[in-house]
Specification:
4 strands; 4-stranded antiparallel beta sheet; 2 domains; CRO Repressor
Amino acid sequence: MNLIYNFLAAILGLDLQPNNLTFLQISLRGIIVFVATLAMIRLGHKRSLARKTAFDAVLVVILASVLSRAINGSSAFFATLGGGLVIVLVHRLFAWIAFYSHGFGVLLKGTPDIIVENGDMIVRSMRRNHISKHDLEEDLRLSAKLEDVRRVKVARVERSGDISFIEADA
């Protein structure tokens, strides 16, 4: 076991200060972290990259921040990889709890907010969500392929921040 550690310590620079790491050591660390991160994301679930909720964005930001330390040598290599894995597992645990607990899901992911009802813009709700009339019109054209907000039965700012539109009956 000591032989393996000594080998890894030499090629990955495990006992070196960050400013003493070579290009090759940082490159090898990067490759290992890349592969480990792919495995973690697969373990965590695809949804963490597919969704745009704050809950999922936090995972991506924190995981990137933590794992970058393993590459640049500012934290212990294997302990940092382990910490990244724990973060992914906690994210998965919270997602599992949110699946079974609506209240916990609302706490983690928020709730949708109606911004148009029966063709009328709800300015107070739009202001709360920082959506201008021009933002709404742009999304209306791009997502619903409509020009006139009066043709919208309901529009919501979803938990992901996307706006969904239900067209009024013609």
